[in-house]
Specification:
The complex is a heterodimer of chains A (277) and B (592). Chain A is α+β, with helices and mostly antiparallel strands. Chain A folds into 2 domains: 2-64 and 79-108, no CATH class; 115-276, Immunoglobulin-like. Chain A is built from 7 helices and 10 strands. In chain A, a hairpin with a 2-residue loop joins strand 1 and strand 2 (125-130). Chain A starts with a helix and ends with a helix. Classes of the chains: A alpha+beta (277), B mainly alpha (592). At the A-B interface, helix 1, helix 2, helix 3, strand 7 and strand 9 of A face helix 3, strand 1, helix 8, helix 9 and helix 10 of B.
Chain lengths: 277, 592
């Protein structure tokens, strides 16, 4: 029976494609293997249901397709069967949801020892900021943005002066150290997306969003924007490099602080302007 | 001769609603153009939706040309690509699927299936169509205004949607919001009609629990749409004000192209909450009519009662209600309050239970049936496969932490196309093959129909099933071209090219369907009034196609539920809903 066979082949073909697909997730680079495990659990459960339903359907088409003299059964309901199927589905759903919620709890609970890094999105480039020697990021405001202050740092905030500012370059992170990535946008929605990190979050103008992770292997990773942000969305790229401790500090020492990047005269000018008002 | 024992037949209530005087058309214009007949309005809705749907189909070809063969087609640039995806999405979701299921199938089937002469407010019903047409024309006009249509994505997220970095910022976005506002006004006029007609104009004996599931699906979807569309209406008005008057409902302090804008104090997330408060129910506004219709297709063509009718009705109502408390699962990575994740993941996965019940009951209806593999039945089977596939991948995206890596990738694109693109369109096509004989009095050509089914079903599956794996790999959506990215192997580009070739093939196969529609109108085999030997009232009209007023002199009286197929002891394998118990022919020897 050709139709039944094709339906069955669709199910079998899907499973085979899944097993032999050359397209699979990237090798993970952070602690979020839990997410991959949850996806795997979901694949097993949903895969079983998919094959079971399609195979049953194909069998029905094979066994009960119209022939001369065949007459269908008349059975409006079967409370017992419907009840069992509902309970079984509930159990399957719980088996996916429970691990998902546990991992979500980890995802939104930032460890106390995480260091902060800021990523700022604007059409269509990335900037980064690391806390300076004081270990704190200074305050910022979109209204402070000027050609010599592209991230809009607050000049009156002492914590901002030693912040390391990296414009449209590469962000380095240290392997094995948990990091809380603070996300900010100055214009439209963006999304800091590194496939190997698994974690991502939108960047929303007017608020600071975040996620956290611990890089577990060194390497160079592509940064893409994952939230549509206008005409050049697809070209908004950067790189993140995860280093060993020594290399990381060597890189960090070469970076300029906000005070170094922003010449003194500009500060004077700004003071004059605000005094003038 | 004895009556078939059936507990519902006692006490046919007296007529609650007096028979209505309809406005009878006096000229060609009031008969075919400004008609107040729901059946004519249904055809107007369907033709308009199909016409604008063909535009969306062509846009999808252009998108696939670009994705499959980047750099080859110099007439597609990055701005246009964004305009294509935006218009494709908006047209398919709202102007095609919503309009076709509710305005098209709803208008045609509700009065006929509940045994009414027409919708209860025929004049408002006519206005509904003309406002819808105006909305479509405003939408289509954006292709011809300076700057072209908006390229903000169908989700229209501010601030991007109204700032100058996005194509169509001049006119496109303004006309898009205007068109949506018009659509909602038009829909509300139609929607009130559908709801009141189902509640107030059912014929004698047509209790709610005797309604065909098609009516339950369309009815519930309409109630939902009446509650959900106002959120989009509000969001559209506010976004329009932000764009035109410089208000800041959704706009925080921000920099536009290097200079500080005048906006300040608004919230981009507020728009997302309003949009998805509409947007998620919208998924079920499209899905529930499909659920209802496919139930009737399966039952009729398997010659068997739908399994678990009462559970099916309650599942429709439960899904409709639950779908209002899941919207923020579209926003897991939006930066919203993180604790929302627990709540919305839980509600979202709970919806899987009533949805799964529906799937079980469809396949259990096939069990020990007498399955006629007609074209409508084939499309119903195709629907089950694509819907199960797309529904199951929804369990990935609904489970908050699993969504984090998958959101904004091609996995999402594959998921929603499978579940609310391909699956409902399988039902639309199956339903057209099923009801075309009632609308025209002629059958569609079966050989062309089978060809159309296999190319469409297998092709669509080949397009969207592998696409999930591109998303799993990490390929982002809404990308004009992927460019250099170390994690994307060249084989992924080959897969994209393959998908594009299949998409073009499936697209062109729809021309066969259009040809069939046109050809059969004149040359199709005459169908008679009830070619599928179906039980529901629309097949029992005195004329085919049904005349104005549907029922001739007397309204039908309903004696039984909609699924008396293969009743033991009855001679025929179906008993129409309006057949009195005494009139049922029994198998010889079964009578006493």
């Amino acid at each position: 029976m050709a139709v039944a066979l094709i339906l069955l082949l669709v199910a079998i073909g899907s499973v085979l494609f899944h097993i032999y697909s050359p397209w699979w997730w990237t090798p993970i680079a952070t602690n979020w293997a839990y997410i991959d495990h949850t996806i795997n659990i979901t694949f097993w459960i949903t895969g079983f249901v998919f094959v079971a339903v399609i195979a049953f359907m194909a069998y029905c088409v094979f066994r009960f397709h119209h022939k001369e003299g065949r007459r269908a059964d008349y059975n409006p309901e079967n409370k017992r069967l419907e009840w069992w199927l509902s309970v079984g589905t509930g159990v399957g759903v719980a088996a996916m949801l429970a691990p998902g919620l546990v991992v979500w709890h980890q995802f939104v609970t930032v460890p106390a020892d995480a260091t902060e890094v800021e990523v700022m999105g604007q059409q269509w480039q990335w900037s980064f900021r690391l806390p300076g020697k004081d270990g704190r990021l200074g305050t910022s405001d979109v209204r402070n943005i000027a050609s010599d202050n592209p991230m809009g740092l607050n000049r009156d905030d002492a914590h901002a002066q030693d912040d390391v500012v990296i414009e449209s370059g590469e962000l380095h992170l240290q392997v094995g150290k948990p990091v809380k990535v603070l996300l900010r946008s100055v214009d439209v929605l963006h999304d800091f997306y590194v496939p190997e990190f698994r974690a991502k979050m939108d960047m929303v103008p007017g608020m600071v969003t975040y996620f956290w992770m611990t890089p577990i292997r060194t390497g160079t990773f592509d940064v893409l924007c994952a939230e549509l942000c206008g005409a050049a969305h697809y070209q908004m790229r950067a790189k993140v490099i995860v280093d060993e401790e020594g290399e990381y500090h060597a890189w960090l020492d070469q970076q300029k602080t906000f005070a170094e990047l922003s010449p003194a005269k500009a500060v004077v000018k700004a003071t004059y302007q605000s005094g003038g008002k | 001769m004895v009556d078939i024992p059936y507990e519902g037949i006692r006490g046919i209530p007296p007529a609650e609603v007096p028979d209505v005087e309809l406005y009878h058309p006096r000229s060609w214009w009031t008969r075919y153009v400004f008609s107040q007949d729901a059946k004519v309005i249904a055809i107007q809705y369907s033709l308009t939706a199909t016409a604008i749907g063909l535009v969306a189909l062509v846009l999808s070809w252009l998108m696939r040309l670009q994705l499959g063969f980047p750099g080859t087609f110099s007439f597609i640039d990055a701005n246009q690509y964004l305009q294509f995806i935006t218009m494709h999405g908006m047209i398919m979701v709202i102007y095609l699927l919503t309009a076709l299921f509710l305005g098209g199938f709803g208008n045609y089937l509700i009065p006929l299936m509940v045994g009414a002469r027409d919708m209860v407010f025929p004049y408002v019903n006519m206005l509904s169509y003309w406002v819808y047409l105006l909305a479509v024309l405003v939408l289509a006009s954006t292709f011809f205004v300076p700057g072209g249509p908006t390229g903000a994505g169908w989700t229209l997220y501010p601030p991007q949607a109204i700032l100058s970095g996005t194509p169509g910022q001049d006119w496109g976005i303004i006309l898009m919001m205007s068109s949506l506002i018009l659509f909602i006004i038009g829909f509300t006029m139609g929607g009130l009609n559908y709801v009141v007609t189902v509640l107030q104009a059912r014929t004698r004996g047509m209790t709610l629990m005797r309604l065909p599931l098609t009516v339950w699906g369309i009815f519930t979807a309409t109630v939902m749409a009446l509650l959900a569309f106002p959120a989009l209406f509000v969001a559209s008005v506010m976004l329009l004000l932000d764009r035109l008057l410089g208000t800041s409902f959704f706009m925080p302090s921000l920099v536009e192209m290097g200079t500080l804008s005048k906006y300040g104090g608004g919230s981009p997330l507020l728009f997302q909450h309003l949009f998805w408060f509409f947007g998620h129910p919208e998924v079920y506004i499209v899905a529930l009519p499909a659920f209802g219709i496919v139930s009737d297709l399966i039952s009729t063509h398997a010659r068997k009662n739908i399994f678990g009718y009462r559970m099916m009705v309650w599942a429709i109502v439960a899904i409709g209600a639950l779908s209002f408390i899941v919207w923020a699962h579209h926003m897991y990575v939006s930066g919203m309050f993180p604790q929302f994740g627990y709540f919305f993941a839980t509600t979202t996965l709970i919806i899987a239970i009533p949805t799964a019940i529906k799937v079980y009951n469809w396949v259990l209806t096939l069990w020990r049936g007498d399955i006629h593999l007609t074209v409508p039945m084939l499309f119903a089977l195709g629907f089950i496969i694509t819907f199960v596939n797309g529904g199951l991948t929804g369990l990935f995206l609904g489970n908050v932490v699993v969504d984090v890596p998958l959101s904004d990738t091609m996995f999402v694109v594959a998921h929603f196309h499978m579940v609310m693109g391909v699956a409902p369109i399988m039902v639309v096509l199956g339903a057209i093959y099923h009801w075309y004989p009632k609308v025209t009095g002629r059958m569609l050509n079966e050989a062309l129909g089978k060809f159309h089914f296999w190319v469409t079903f297998l092709g669509a599956y080949l397009i969207f099933f592998p696409m999930h794996y591109l998303g799993l790999l990490g390929v982002p959506r809404r990308y004009f071209e992927l460019g250099d990215a170390t994690f994307i192997p060249s084989s992924a580009h080959s897969l994209n090219a393959f998908i594009s070739v299949v998409a073009l093939t499936v697209g062109f196969s729809q021309l066969v369907f259009l040809f069939n529609l046109a050809w059969s109108l004149f040359k199709g085999e005459a169908s008679g009034g009830n070619p599928w030997r179906a039980t529901t009232l629309e097949w029992q009209t005195p004329e085919t196609p049904p005349g104005h007023g549907n029922w001739g002199k007397e309204l039908p009286v309903v004696y039984r539920w909609a699924y008396d197929y293969s009743v033991p002891g009855a001679a025929e394998d179906f008993i129409p809903q309006n057949q009195p118990p005494r009139a049922t022919q029994l198998v010889q020897g079964a009578a006493s």
